[in-house]
Amino acid sequence: MTSVNSGETLKVDIWRGGEDGYYQSFAVPHETSQTVLDIVTYVQRKLDPTLSYRFSCRVGMCGSCAMTVNGRPRWTCRTHVDLVAEDGKITIEPMRNFPLIKDLAVDMTVFFDKWRDANARFAPSDGDLNGFVNVDPESRERKEANAAIECIGCGVCYAACDVVAWNPDYLGPAALNRAWTLVNDVRDADPKGHLKAVAGDAGCHACHSQQGCASHCPKSLSPTASIAGLKRKSFAALLKGEL
Fold it and tell me: What range does the domain containing 51 cover?
């Protein structure tokens, strides 16, 4: 990889159109501390206002700017050009494993539908609404939940997952990671329901443990570890006749 000096020109290839689209090349001036999102924004504002993409916070909080940069899914707002430019060239594509809307914008519906299918939503108990559940921060369950709870649903792990590419029905790393946090949450009233939802053919046991999700996660989470936990828990529940 060769660094690009400020003031030089970058050759940027951006995917345009739908699934049967094409790459369009742009010449973009390189600036100091420039991010890939800065490049896309420059193209849309200065060169081609028809370019479609998605972003919001620009500071690594929302995850909506995720795209594929030189073959790797990334948050473009946190990806500096100097770290990814190869001989002054960058290729920017939409995230894979998602239906493509246009250019760099993908449809996230299938991703969030799988959170629903994984029963990855908190089930409140029927206790006193004015009371508080005592959560021991040092308990094994709480530590397991804490290790996985910072997911913001950006979809990078889903785009990086080869199992999703092979099996579109697979629930995916993010939904399974969320289910794991709920199984370990003492406040949740339906841990068996969460396990039942993820124990099927397209659930946790479909994971090949290749750790693509863990190696790409911008939050440094390990959905692979969460999925392994679900495998153990669901198998134990099956032996007990609970599934």
Answer: 9-106
Q: Is the pLDDT of residue 52 over 70?
A: yes
Give the three-class secondary structure for 15. Answer: strand
d(CA 77, CA 229): 32
Same domain, 65 and 23: yes
Count of CB atoms within 10 A of residue 213's CB? 29
- For 169-184, b/e burial (b = at least 16 CB within 10 A) is ebbbbbbbbbbbbbbb
The per-residue pLDDT of the chain, averaged, comes to: 93
d(Cα 215, Cα 213) in Å, to the nearest integer? Answer: 6
Residues 120 and 20 in one domain: no
Q: State the number of CA atoms in the 13 A half-sphere of 2 facing the CB.
A: 7
Interacting residues of 138 by C-beta distance below 8 A, sequence separation 6+: none
Number of domains in the chain: 2
